[in-house]
Amino acid sequence: MKKQLAVFSIAVLAAYACSQKTATTVSTSEPTIKTESATVNHERYLAGKTIYDAKCGRCHKLYEPQTGNMTQWNKWIDRMAPKAKLTEEETALVRDYVSVNAKPM
Q1: Which among 45, 51, 62, 61 has a CA at the least distance from the CA of 84?
Q2: What is the share, in percent, of the chain residues with pLDDT greater than 70?
Q3: Which residues contact 44 (CB under 8 A, 6 or more apart)?
Q4: How many CB atoms are located within 10 Å of the residue 16 CB?
Q5: Fewer Cβ close by (within 10 Å): the C or N end of the chain?
């Protein structure tokens, strides 16, 4: 009985080891968020939120993006970015973040 169990175990292991392996595919495309005017990469959205929370929230209450449309937000971002000492890239990231949830124009 032990001999049969050992032979069976070896056969199962050999069959498993020799079976076809399926490769796991990894998606290289990053998730995106669609707005009315553009598609925003998920990483850019998160980076923009982080900058908005950290740099804008340092001086005043943070407003939810849906409190205004992009015309209003662009005006405020243009006015406040120099005060917050945002780089051009940081400013673009904040715009991307806000654009996802801003009111339609």
Answers
A1: 51
A2: 64
A3: 93, 96, 97
A4: 8
A5: N
